[in-house]
Amino acid sequence: MDFFLNAASAVMATGPLVAMLGATLLGVLIGALPGLNPVMAIALLLPLTYSMDPLVALAMVAGIYNGSMYGGAIPAILLRIPGTPASIATTFDGFPMAEKGEAAKALKIACWSSAIGGIASALALMTVGPLLARATLYFGPAEYFWIAIFGMASVGVMVGSDPVKGIMAAVLGLLLGTVGIDQLSGQARYTFDQPWLLGGLDLVVVLVGLYALPPVLQLAEKCDLEGLSAAQLRLASVPFRKGEVRGLLPTWGRSSLIGIFVGILPGAGGNIAAFLSYNAAKNASSEPDSFGKGNPQGVAAAECGNNADNAASMIPALTLGIPGNVVAALVLSALMIHGLQPGPQLFHQNPVLVGGFMIEMLLTSVLILLVGGAAATRIFAQIQRLPGVLLVPSILVLMCVGVYVINGRPVDLWVMLAAGAAGYLLEKLNVPLAPIILGMILGPMAEQSVRRALLISRGDPVDLLTRPISAVLAAATLAMILWPVMKALKRRRAKKMSENNA
């Protein structure tokens, strides 16, 4: 208890409090602007923290991280443009809700879900973090391989109306993920002697093109000269109806647990947590066909899941020195900038700093309700009132600026345009885009893990199934793939029975 009391007194100083408030608002802004992301913002922030107090620097990191993860939901709901990679799943039901005139409701659910997921994640970091971190010691390359395969299979099968197209999209993402230097052998693959391809295709560049450009092109097709009126946008305060919060509680609880579990696993991330949470909510629903058509449960699951990953990803980073995602790696960099060594000894050598950072992750999650719900959401929501003829060039400029500043390469603009054209055509063919992005994320993880596992087992593939956790994950993957097949056979059998009875 003294551990957190001393840390709390340090956090409640003026510097950390002002830093948390300002950084959370800045994070919402960054997440709401397509092309910008928390990784970019925190990476640019790190050089500025040399002269800062460590608690102030970490307060800014926590605020930008939590704020941007919620801020990504604003364009995802209003424009079907995910502000961050973790907001892709939010578009599935958030944008249909906005089209039905329920934008304010979707934004409120996203705000509350983000805050609840972040609070649950911070509490996990503060209470059972060291205990949960030990569980990751039982995960080897074989387990990470099956986690990656299960993630791709679940999204490929569950997203979209045709599982075959979903699996095809996941395979396309796998192919895109192979571009660049092979991290195990050092060989260049599919680079066509182009130096800029040696590092592979930049995920954010492809994401912006694949997800942000098609809606802009569709908006340009409509040639909207008026935009939405204030009455159509309906962004006045919308209270929760009686029993609505009670109906969301199971989704919040389930998604928080999934997000925390995914966050603890190094190399996963909020995008995986959001997809798995969304799929779990869809499977648990009595009306699964309503998902993708404006079901509030889909928004709640996606936003709660991706924010529950935030603080949980710091568990292996702070206790073992193993970053759970890119942002956690940047946090480790911030600690080392100030002469601190992440790992088990960090809790004994700098208890006030570690406990203070945990409290800052908790407080910035609470600030999402105040900053996001009261100010930033309404401000950024008004972008839909702009006529389409003004909105299209404005979004294109933001996309181009955001993509260019990532690496400072003009060629990234051409990659974005190519990905956007491909995404536009694939949508016309009803091919889901989410499995492509997840294939790019999980493909390298699956490839490197399975090759390491085979090296350890001296080429014996049976070893991938002999470990208990690997066997469970493999069985879950098989069940996920066979589930739509069994469902289709069941429908066919029922149809034949009805025809025979007739």
From TrEMBL:
Keywords in alphabetical order: Membrane, Transmembrane, Transmembrane helix
Presence of keyword Iron-sulfur: no
InterPro entries in the cross-refs: DUF112_TM (IPR002823)
Domain spans labelled DUF112: 17-438
Organism: Stappia indica
Bilayer-spanning residue ranges: 7-33, 39-65, 112-132, 144-161, 167-184, 196-213, 257-278, 317-340, 352-376, 388-406, 469-489
Protein name (database record): Putative tricarboxylic transport membrane protein
Domain of life of the native organism: Bacteria
